[in-house]
């Protein structure tokens, strides 16, 4: 009978030791969790402005070159949001791509033969985050190659039009989502 109590006491002691180790391990996570909560609270304050800038990015910059895209963000939209009354809070140095995509998605696109430059990534982000029909200006036909590879699973049809005047190929495609 004493052996039975002794074994039970040892098992309980072992459980207590394991529980203490777990609590100690979780205590170190408390700092990380507190930082995460603080970060989420900050993001909550700027979420409306961040989403507004990302929506403007998707809706309006697709037609423009990189310098003009930067000018729209930095010289028009960001100052406007800062100067209206009341100002719309947004994250300083916001990159719309950080809200709209992640590194894993970009890596997948690159594996599907999307060029790795910033402009191609922006165009792919616009294309995959819009419900409208974005205009894609693709003089080197890199984007159309990516669309053909990446949209094989989607309900997408691609047709080619040739302009005879300057012999540039113009593609049009329709993409229907689920």
Report on the structure:
The structure is a single chain. The protein is mainly alpha-helical. 62% of the residues lie in helices and 9% in strands. It has 6 helices and 2 strands; from the N terminus they run ααααααββ. A two-stranded antiparallel sheet has the order 1-2. A hairpin with a 6-residue loop joins strand 1 and strand 2.
Helix content: 55-70%
Query: pLDDT under 50 segments (min length 5)?
Result: none
Please state roughly what percent of the residues sit in beta strands, choosing from under 5%, 5-15%, 15-25%, 25-35%, 35-45% or over 45%: 5-15%
Instruction: Round the mean pLDDT to the nearest integer and report it.
Output: 82
Give the helix tally. Answer: 6
Overall geometry: elongated
Secondary structure class reads: mainly alpha
Keywords:
two-stranded antiparallel sheet, mainly alpha, 6 helices
Break the fold down into its secondary structure elements and pairings.
Blueprint: H1 2-60, H2 66-83, H3 96-100, H4 103-111, H5 118-128, H6 142-150, E1 155-162, E2 169-176
Antiparallel strand pairs: 1-2
């Amino acid at each position: 009978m004493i052996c039975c109590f002794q074994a039970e006491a040892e098992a309980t002691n072992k459980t207590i030791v394991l529980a203490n180790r777990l609590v100690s391990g979780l205590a170190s996570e408390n700092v990380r969790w507190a930082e995460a909560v603080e970060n989420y609270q900050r993001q909550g304050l700027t979420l409306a402005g961040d989403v507004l800038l990302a929506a403007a990015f998707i809706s309006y910059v697709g037609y423009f070159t990189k310098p003009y895209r930067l000018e729209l963000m930095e010289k028009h939209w960001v100052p406007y949001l800062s100067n209206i009354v009341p100002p719309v809070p947004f994250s300083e140095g916001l990159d719309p791509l950080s809200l709209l995509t992640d590194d894993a998605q970009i890596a997948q696109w690159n594996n599907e033969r999307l060029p790795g430059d910033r402009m191609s990534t922006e165009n792919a982000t616009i294309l995959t985050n819009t419900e409208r029909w974005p205009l894609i200006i693709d003089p080197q036909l890199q984007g159309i190659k990516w669309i053909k590879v990446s949209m094989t699973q989607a309900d997408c049809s691609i047709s080619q039009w040739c302009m005879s005047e300057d012999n540039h190929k113009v593609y049009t495609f329709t993409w229907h989502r689920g």
